[in-house]
């Protein structure tokens, strides 16, 4: 549905040319919810704006639904209003002097895809029903909460029934509780209408919960594309491991026996290609993959440790422990039962470590 090939974009700044996109290739399948994830300045929003036609690419090609809409080499550029897309921005961008109905109806009565006057009311009603706001058709925009305003913006983007929905951090202005609720609603809505969605965010939890696939970007390049589970459980680089989810990192060195030596001991785990004996590497493990046991339950798997900090999160507890001079975060379900200052045994599962050169 969305095919991007060799996309490049540079911007002029007072410090010279800045490469926002460095020749990226991307394929988004029909009806897929595809998330672009990365830190500020990584190129995710520039990618979205090029797909929307709000930015002109310097090189490369963009194909939407089988039609090329951007190709500087071929002299092709289709304006935004002629691309079959809907957009939802970070700012809600709804008209404050209009009510809910008028905001959602605007693309149908003033936009390129106008419909017969007799069809407007029904189409608006259907769009508002999708976002559960059909009972607020007459409410002024200024009387809506943040979450309601965002739903109006979503309804307006979908009322023309576009093939592609582009969303640029649409939930970032909402409070944490409402953001979680909107995530569930958003995925339910987009799947129910079968629209192909390209979604931009810097929020890793948002990306993992929403995306059918997640694309991690940095400095204008794509680092990894995969399902949320693949990106989280099998990061292919140190940057992805650092950016997606919590991770413990420990310096290590490859031994002649092919093991990795570290302050916590030796680990038999897969070493990246090219990492010969003596090479320094980084060991990484998720906090939830570490196990704590009472000091009395010593075993060959564990090392002596001490609880330094405990944060109770309701459904889980996040602890910081020190073992062999190394501080590690451990995530346990529930209250966990351990206290600050308590001596414990830290179990280090061999099969959970990842090694990065």
Q: What can you tell me about this protein's structure?
A:
The chain is α+β, with helices and mostly antiparallel strands. The protein folds into 2 domains: 2-241, P-loop containing nucleotide triphosphate hydrolases (Rossmann fold); 246-356, OB fold (Dihydrolipoamide Acetyltransferase, E2P) (Beta Barrel), CATH 2.40.50.140. The protein contains 8 helices and 21 strands. The protein has helices spanning 44-52, 100-109, 117-130, 146-158, 176-193, 204-210, 228-233, 238-243, and strands at residues 2-13, 16-28, 33-37, 59-64, 67-71, 76-77, 85-88, 164-168, 196-201, 213-218, 221-226, 248-254, 260-262, 265-267, 280-285, 291-294, 302-312, 316-323, 326-333, 343-347, 354-356. Strands 7-8-9-3-10-11 form a 6-stranded mixed β-sheet, with helices on both faces. β10 and β11 (221-226) form a beta hairpin. The chain is globular and about 75 Å long.
Features:
OB fold (Dihydrolipoamide Acetyltransferase, E2P), 6-stranded mixed β-sheet, alpha+beta, 21 strands, about 350 residues, globular, Rossmann fold, 5-stranded antiparallel β-sheet
Summed up, the domain count is: 2
CATH class descriptor of the largest domain: Alpha Beta
Unreliable segments (pLDDT under 50, ≥5 consecutive)? none
Q: CATH homologous superfamily of the largest domain?
A: P-loop containing nucleotide triphosphate hydrolases
- Helix and strand element order: EEEHEEEEHHHEHEHEEHHEEEEEEEEEE
Write down the CATH topology of the largest domain.
Rossmann fold
């Amino acid at each position: 549905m969305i095919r991007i090939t060799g996309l490049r974009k540079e911007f002029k700044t007072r410090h010279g040319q800045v490469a926002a996109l460095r020749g990226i290739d991307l394929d988004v399948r029909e009806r897929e919810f595809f998330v672009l994830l990365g830190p500020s300045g990584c190129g995710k929003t520039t990618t979205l704006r090029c797909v929307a036609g709000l930015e002109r690419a310097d090189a490369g090609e963009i194909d939407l639904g089988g039609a090329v809409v951007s190709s500087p080499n071929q002299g092709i550029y289709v304006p935004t209003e002629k691309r079959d897309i809907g957009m939802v921005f970070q700012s809600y961008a709804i008209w404050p002097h209009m009510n809910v109905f008028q905001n959602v109806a605007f693309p149908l009565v003033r936009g390129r895809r106008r419909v017969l006057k007799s069809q407007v009311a029904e189409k608006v009603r259907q769009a508002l029903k999708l976002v559960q706001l059909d009972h607020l058709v007459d409410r002024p925009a200024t009387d809506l909460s943040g979450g309601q305003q965002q739903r109006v913006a979503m309804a307006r983007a979908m009322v023309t029934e576009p093939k592609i929905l582009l969303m640029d951090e649409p939930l970032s202005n909402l409070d944490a509780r409402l953001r979680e609720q909107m995530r569930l609603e958003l995925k339910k809505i987009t799947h129910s209408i079968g629209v192909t969605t390209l979604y931009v965010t810097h929020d890793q939890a948002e990306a993992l919960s929403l995306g059918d696939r997640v694309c991690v970007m940095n400095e204008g390049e794509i680092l990894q594309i995969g399902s949320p589970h693949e990106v989280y459980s099998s990061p292919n680089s140190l940057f992805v491991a650092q950016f997606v989810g919590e991770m413990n990192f420990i310096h290590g060195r490859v031994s002649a026996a092919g093991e990795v030596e570290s302050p916590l001991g030796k680990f038999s785990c897969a070493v990246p290609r090219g990492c010969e004996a003596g090479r320094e590497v980084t060991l990484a493990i998720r906090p939830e993959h570490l196990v704590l046991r009472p000091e009395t339950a010593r075993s060959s798997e564990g090392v002596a440790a001490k609880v330094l900090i405990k944060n109770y999160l309701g459904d889980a507890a996040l602890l910081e422990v020190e073992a062999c001079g190394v501080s590690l975060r451990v995530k346990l379900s529930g209250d966990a039962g351990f206290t600050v200052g308590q001596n414990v045994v830290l179990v280090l599962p061999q099969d959970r470590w990842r090694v990065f050169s």
